[in-house]
Amino acid sequence: MEKFDFGPVSLLLTIPSSVYLPSDDTEMLAQAAQSQVPPGSSVLEIGTGSGAVILSLAKSGKKFKQLVAVDLNPDAVETAKKNAKENEIDSKSVSFLQSDLFSSLPASSKFDFILFNPPYLPTSKLDKVKGALNSALDGGPDGLKTVRPFLAEAGKHLAPGGNILLVVSSLQPKDKLQALLARHPFSHSVLLSKSFFFEKLEIWELSQKA
Predict the structure, then answer these.
(1) Which of 50, 150, 177, 196 has the fewest CB atoms nearer than 10 Å to its CB?
(2) Chain mean position to CA 3
């Protein structure tokens, strides 16, 4: 078990080797969510991993209409549930589901905010990590393998006026990403930006165009 700080919120997290370890991208998404998501909102997190982001919202002191978190990796779902219990977060406060993006959610479900830290590392067959952790890291040849189906479906699950908070890396081709946004269509603004030794990470807020 290890202590992680996400802005004013501290969490005790146990994270097995098969689950994504919270990193700078996790911290940035948690910071943006705490800043942008108002009380009373319904929130969906795709790819919750250890549960860090959604649990930091649950412990922020705000009251939310609904908090739902999903992950393709069953180990991540069980880990997030255990971390919620460890941090004394009521099981009724956050729902955790195993799901490939939106596949396990009712077609009619809509949220004010959708949070997503996708697998964005451009990878070849030689780069793949063995086991369940690969789904959290492998972004395909251009780092957009999971972002494409996500953007194709996300609009159907946004409430009117809803927004998406998306982690974007400089390792991804921005021209391809912006073309995807134009296709669906979404506008975007950059909420946060931080440079690291091998990449720049940003949090984009996406809004559906009328």
Answers:
(1) 196
(2) 20
Tokens of 42: 């319904």
Sorted by where each begins, the domain ranges of the chain are 2-208
Q: How far is CA 113 from CA 37, 47, 65, 85, in A?
A: 7, 14, 11, 24
Handedness of CA 143, 146, 151, 152 (dihedral sign): positive
Structure tokens at 1: 């078990």
Residue whose entry in the numeric block shows the structure tokens 């972002």: 147
Mean of pLDDT values over 130-150 = 71
Neighbours of 187 (CB within 10 A): 13
Cα gap 143→92, rounded to integer Å: 35
Q: What one-character DSSP code corresponds to residue 198?
A: S
Amino acid identity at 134: N
Please give the Cα distance from 208 to 193 (Å, whole number): 22
pLDDT tens by residue, 154-185: 999 999 999 999 999 988 889 999 999 999 99
Fold assignment, 2-208: Rossmann fold (3.40.50)
CB 83 within 8 A of CB 14: yes
Structure letter (DSSP) for residue 78: H
Q: Taking the CB of residue 76, how many other CB atoms lie within 10 A of it?
A: 28
